[in-house]
Design brief:
The structure holds 2 protein chains of 2 kinds.
Chain A: E1 2-3, E2 6-7, H1 8-17, E3 21-23, E4 36-43, E5 49-56, E6 69-77, H2 87-101, E7 108-112, E8 116-126, H3 132-157, H4 162-168, H5 175-184
Antiparallel strand pairs in A: 1-2, 3-4, 4-5, 5-6, 6-8, 7-8
Helix pairs in contact in A: 1-3
Chain B: H1 8-20, E1 25-28, E2 38-45, E3 48-59, H2 60-67, E4 79-90, H3 96-109, E5 114-117, E6 122-131, H4 138-163, H5 169-184
Antiparallel strand pairs in B: 1-2, 2-3, 3-4, 4-6, 5-6
Helix pairs in contact in B: 1-4, 3-5, 4-5
Classes of the chains: A alpha+beta, B alpha+beta.
Chain lengths: 185, 185
């Protein structure tokens, strides 16, 4: 499978070479027939598999105006029972997810109404082919961050306060926020 | 604190490219009060002539090294170009929960980047572009800035109404969904 910016077969070979498990899209699943890679990235501390989905966002047409941009989305569904959270806890969770986003070095947590909590990153690129080693680095960073986010949110589900969770993660302002403040100085 | 400038030529090239597209950017060199270099520009917001978006760019590797020189291995990794757009909206403390709900929903729908808050409740849009080197294509940077302007123009009016309690969260979500549909048209 290829498209203008991306050679899925080449990426599959590189990922397998460095030890990732690349799985075929499930027949009849929502990915069937699409150019998508499902990449096994180990398991959470609770034993749940972390599977990363990589695909092109070809329907993001507003990105195409005036050029040949491509967006590749990399997504983990984080295996956490958050759908049952209700009321004020739900709004507290939304705020916590946004605060956790500010601590992430790459990507963001967001809520998918159909699948639950996702960690995802949209790689926007144009013209030149995206180098597979770069994608490997993104996957490694996301797998690491995904594991940490599962741990942090499991603590929240167990009753730990958001401020304590953020403090445990370092409480250090994200590079982005610091960059903003540094630039304002 | 690093004395040398690892990316001045990159930022100067970006200043020229942005000027070609009508955006005036300022290079921010390393200074005692700012341990890493960057770029700052004021960008107009579509359909909101009274407002401006302040956008800052910096390499995340540099920002993290400024916090902890022990992370020297970051120099060798893929370069993380951070875009932080500061929206002209401070979230009132009493409305942050509702605003979090809306921002989280927007983040799920957008193909890249994420809205969030800084520590003081200022609303930001941030994106981390992972690139194989610091030689990021200037046109790609221009495209990302244009998209950040587009997203801000679409959603800032709704965020303001929600912040001022002129809309409920469910009404704001409905309006945001309607605006998102315009992106695909």
């Amino acid at each position: 499978m290829t498209n203008q910016n991306f050679d899925y077969d080449r990426l599959t070979a590189v990922l397998q070479h460095v030890g990732f498990e690349v799985m075929p899209a499930r027949a009849g699943g929502e990915e069937a027939g699409a150019e998508v890679l499902l990449i096994g990235c180990g398991r959470t501390t609770a034993g749940e598999p972390l599977i990363l989905k990589l695909f092109s966002l070809a329907d993001a047409l507003h990105l195409q105006a005036g050029g040949q941009a491509a967006v590749f989305q990399l997504q983990f569904v984080l295996p956490l029972p958050l759908a049952t959270v209700q009321g004020s806890r739900k709004l507290e969770l939304a705020r916590l997810l946004l605060d956790l986003n500010m601590l992430l070095p790459l990507g963001q947590l967001c809520w998918n109404p159909r699948q639950g909590l996702e960690l995802r990153y949209g790689l926007i690129w144009e013209d030149a082919e995206i180098a597979p080693p770069l994608v490997v680095e993104i996957i490694e960073k996301m797998a690491y961050a995904g594991g940490r986010m599962v741990t942090a949110l499991s603590q929240w589900l167990s009753g730990t306060r958001p401020a304590e969770i953020l403090a445990r993660l370092g409480g250090q302002p994200s590079a982005a926020e610091s960059a903003a403040k540094g630039a304002q100085a | 604190m690093p004395a040398e400038s690892p990316a001045k030529h990159v930022f100067e090239r970006l200043v020229q490219a942005l000027a070609f597209f009508g955006l005036t950017a300022e290079y921010l060199p390393i200074r005692p009060e700012r341990a890493f270099e960057g770029l700052r520009l004021q960008a107009p917001i579509p359909h909101l002539p009274a407002d401006q978006l302040e956008i800052q760019l910096a390499f995340g590797n540099d920002a993290l090294l400024a916090f902890d020189p022990g992370l020297a291995a970051l120099r060798e990794q893929a370069q993380n170009l951070l875009f932080v757009a500061v929206l002209p909206l401070q979230a009132p403390a009493a409305r942050r929960a509702e605003l979090s709900g809306l921002l989280l929903s927007l983040n799920h729908t957008l193909p890249f980047g994420a809205f969030g808050f800084d520590g003081e409740g200022q609303i930001l849009f941030r994106y981390q572009l992972l690139a194989p080197s610091r030689e990021v294509p200037p046109l790609l940077v221009v495209r990302i800035i244009r998209l950040i302007q587009l997203y801000t123009g679409l959603f800032l009016p709704i965020l303001r109404k929600l912040a001022q309690a002129e809309l409920s969260l469910s009404a704001a979500l409905g309006q945001a969904e309607a605006r998102l549909r315009t992106l695909a048209e």
